[in-house]
Structure formats: structure tokens, C-alpha cells
TrEMBL record:
Keywords: Metal-binding, Zinc, Zinc-finger. GO terms for molecular function: zinc ion binding. This is GRF-type domain-containing protein. It comes from Brachypodium distachyon (Purple false brome). PANTHER family: OS02G0474200 PROTEIN, OS07G0190500 PROTEIN. Residues 9-54 form the GRF-type domain. The lineage of its organism: Eukaryota, Viridiplantae, Streptophyta, Embryophyta, Tracheophyta. PROSITE patterns: ZF_GRF.
Amino acid sequence: IPLLPLVRCPCCRVRSAVCLVSKPEQNPDRVFYKCPNHRNGKGGCNFFHWEDGEDSYVDYLSSIGVVIPCIDSAGEIEEQEHKVEQKAMKNVEKKVEKVEKKDEMQQILEKIEDLIGLCKMTLCVLWC
């Protein structure tokens, strides 16, 4: 699973980049990004970037303005997203509590107004 966003190929402008792992002895297990139409020589796209090193895929993404999340380990982004979701849920719960308290306060005010009305009627009956 690629950790970086896969963008549309700037050469053919049709296909999106793919993330692969090199198998040759020259660069074993090295991650790279390329257009599926990439060919060495004539007849294909020139889009190819190693994930690391000089002129990396990260450098390319930065040059076209793609925001790249900070990645320390594969699961850290998921953990951060989970924390953000938890924080958002707590905010929603707080807002719901405020609404419930507001409804409760509204009911109390209505009861107080009813009691004031009863007191006024009682006073009228006693004084008249």
C-alpha cells in the first residue's frame, strides 16, 4: 500500500502513477513510482521517480503543490486520524450536552413562569 498520494502522470495526462517495489539486484526492495505507460526509450511516458534519493517522488509531489502528511511509521497516520475522530466526537458530545442543558433550562423557566402566574392569581384572589 503506497503511503504517498498517487497523482496523474504529467506526460500522458491519462493514467495515475503506480507504486511498485524494485526486484533487480541493482536496487532490491527499493520503492518507486511510475506511470503504467512508462517505457525506457521511445513510445512511452517518462514519468518515473524513486521514493527516496535525489529527485524523489516526494520532491516531485512538493513541486506540484501536493500536501504530504508527516509519516514516521505506517500506522501513525491512522492513529492520528483516530485521535482527530475521537476529539471531534467529544466536541459533538459537548455540544449535545449544551443543547440538552438548554432544553432543560427552557423547561425550568417555563415551570417558573407557570408558578409566577399561579402566585399572581392567588394574590388576586386573596386581595379581591
